[in-house]
Write a structure and sequence with these properties.
The structure is a homodimer of 191-residue chains.
Chain A lengths: L8 H15 L6 H8 L3 H7 L3 H24 L5 H18 L7 H10 L3 H27 L9 H18 L5 H12 L3
Helix pairs in contact in A: 1-2, 1-4, 4-7, 5-9, 6-7, 7-8, 8-9
The structure holds a DNA duplex (30 and 30 nucleotides).
Chain lengths: 191, 191
DNA sequence: CAAATTTTTGTCCTGTAGGTCAAGAAAGGA
DNA sequence: TCCTTTCTTGACCTACAGGACAAAAATTTG
């Protein structure tokens, strides 16, 4: 019927996500996106309407990856406190692993754009809700298992942990592993 | 001897700080800075070497303001838990008050630049240390007053609170007051 | 093979970022 | 009063952001 695409959309979105993640939205130019994805600027604008559209898709992709990771991580064996602490630690370790501290794309985006842009604000909210829901479920299960004090409100504690995670991913830009791990220990002490 | 400046440097820095705070570093142009400060672009570049230099000074100014606010706020009467909670609440309320959610300049800067720029990274660290020190002092005093459990490590808890604050100032971009206040309550429960 | 359709490449375009510079203006000193 | 010095204004400059578009290329259908 017509000439087929030479590239896979999802792969392009993945690479674009990396570029946005490392440099931020404003500081990533179409030229950089073309270089990062390996396709011409023209093809990019043909496949995706605009830089903003591509960014929106990259955010969705990030959401999907993050939601699955949380799911997997929280399904591991162990007490609630151990599992939750392990989840937070793995996030921090991922932050510290790379040569450049890119943090969390959702947090970066929230800081850079959510204050001005309601659509972005909603996207970030959705992502947070996914994590909060996963944490809530795991804590509720802990309560059923007798693993967590019945006084703990699963949803409330999950929101508190969400806030801790967001903090950690910013703090990871300027602090070392021991301090971050101490913070995690404090945060899960109530479980 | 020579023609004197028509403007006060500190006032210009204050207004520049506001512009950077609202729009971020990359997304604030020299033209905007000129408009925000009320002086010509040429004068700006005469008085300050570069956009970056002006930003550095704005950061210093922000640090000074923040440090004094923390000092004042934590010196208020009340139990340690009350005073600390009041401090966090006042930060959150400031975030929610404005028409545009600009968050915390230090956090914004950390997210936007600290990953790539070691100088910025150190500046952010300094600011965090000021807040951590103020919180540590207040908690230590609480322990002496018999107000705080002796098992609490002042410095460790201060670091944890610092992380909570950073989280809150990001979460304030996408969440409402009740949730943020619940998070604060959870965070001070260990005091 | 021709036609129709969609992609790719590369050129082109407008606006703005970030900054420079030359000219004139405002002070104090000789 | 004129000179020197520093400040201000505004024009100017180069590079790139973000995107539009035309022409050529690749595929399926008839």
């Amino acid at each position: 019927m017509a000439r087929p695409r030479k590239f896979d959309d999802d792969e392009v979105i993945d690479r674009a996500m990396d570029a946005f993640w490392t440099n931020g939205y404003f500081n990533t130019s179409p030229a950089q996106l073309a270089a990062a994805t390996g396709i011409g600027k023209g093809s990019l604008y043909n496949a995706f309407t605009s830089k903003r559209d591509l960014f929106d898709r990259a955010l969705s992709r990030y959401d999907a990856i993050g939601a699955e990771f949380a799911e997997q991580s929280l399904a591991k064996p162990g007490t609630t406190r151990e599992v939750v602490a392990g989840f937070l630690r793995s996030l921090v370790e991922a932050d510290l692993a790379g040569p450049v501290r890119r943090g969390c794309l959702a947090v970066n985006t929230s800081v850079e754009l959510a204050g001005q842009d309601p659509e972005i604000q909603r996207a970030v909210q959705r992502m947070q809700q996914h994590t909060i829901a996963a944490l809530t479920d795991r804590i509720a299960r802990g309560r059923r298992d007798g693993d967590v004090d019945p006084d703990v409100d699963p949803r409330g504690y999950a929101e508190f942990l969400m806030n801790t995670i967001v903090g950690l991913r910013v703090m990871a830009k300027t602090n070392d592993a021991p301090m971050l791990h101490r913070i995690i220990d404090s945060a899960v002490a109530g479980l």
